[in-house]
Amino acid sequence: MAAVIKKVLSIILRLLALAATLVDIVVMAALVAFYGKSGDLGNARKAFDKMPDRSIVAWNSMISGYEQNGEAREVFDSMNERNVVAWTAMISGYGMNGYAHQAVELFDEMRRRGPCPNSITFVAVLSACAHAGLVKEAYSFIIEEVPKEPAAAIWTAMLGACKMHKNLDLGVQVAEQLLNVEPENPGHYVMLSNIYALAGRMDRVEMVRNVMIQKCLKKQVGYSTIEVDHKTYLFSMGDKSHPETNEIYRYLDELMSRCREAGYAAVPESVLHELEEEEREFALRYHSEKLAIAFGLLKMSHEAPIRIIKNLRMCEDCHWAIKYISVVANREIIVRDKLRFHHFKDGSCSCLDYW
Ligand SMILES: [Zn+2]
Ligand SMILES: [Zn+2]
């Protein structure tokens, strides 16, 4: 008995020690951010140096503190411990502040004499390039080097950049790379056919569709879940199984008409998702995430953010529509789709349309 009590006590003590370390990290990161924002860089650096484990958040706070107060690169250069997180934070710092060329230069330097870039570094440099329209440059220096895992996430970010800058020729090449990495993923074929459609290559759209049929690849059925009052509700496209279906559809229609008044129009290429002709118009309007959001808005208190989990990648139209919904319903909406979190607030999304 005594031995058991002793073991339990030792586990409790270890947990308390771990909790104290975590609290330390959180408090220190907050201190770094506080000192950095108030211009007290000496104390920001002291708090930063004392941190036992520096997260990317702490690096970002430290670097943006220096950026707001004039010089960041010197500090980065003077730091002894420059791991992959530090390099990535500096590259993304340049990117977010519109210094795409500097981001690319630093990435180049990292490849020559820094640690091996990881997938987050690739996404950071790609985003920097994409914002500045340097899509070709990004493609030229990543093509050989993209790590095998998780290459799909990197190519998808690149594809987002191509679409945003209407660089459709490159978009086709990138989508083809995506297919090389994951040849059996039906979602990539859909993306490739969408990019062909945007480029006006309807013959190719048809070809991709035929390849999918030959390979017996079917688009997975999309569904979204939402938790309301400790209960999880699941919605599929055009779902009418919920007891309050009529109310949900009526509310969603009303919501979308308010979105249209605010400037929303359906995104045409989303209509090219792999669906039968007669399903398309209906499908776009009643995708599962839209139904789940309407249900959440109807049922949850006004302050609570709406949280949705979707099993597939969100389509362009839903992404566009949810931005408007966040404005007309004045609500934060968080969607975790197959690739990432999307945090919609005041008409924009945290992914900045790269996903
Ligand atoms: Zn959708
Ligand atoms: Zn997003």
UniProtKB/TrEMBL annotation:
Gene Ontology biological process terms from the UniProt entry: RNA modification
Domain of life: Eukaryota
Domain DYW: 263-355
Pfam families named in the record: DYW_deaminase, E_motif, Eplus_motif, PPR, PPR_2
PPR repeat start-end pairs: 24-58, 83-117
Alphabetized InterPro entries for the sequence: DYW_dom, E2_motif, E_motif, PPR_At4g14850-like_plant, PPR_rpt, TPR-like_helical_dom_sf
GO molecular function, one term: RNA binding
Entry's transmembrane regions: 12-36
Alphabetic keyword roster: Membrane, Repeat, Transmembrane, Transmembrane helix
Similarity annotation: Belongs to the PPR family. PCMP-H subfamily.
Name of the protein described by the UniProt record: DYW domain-containing protein
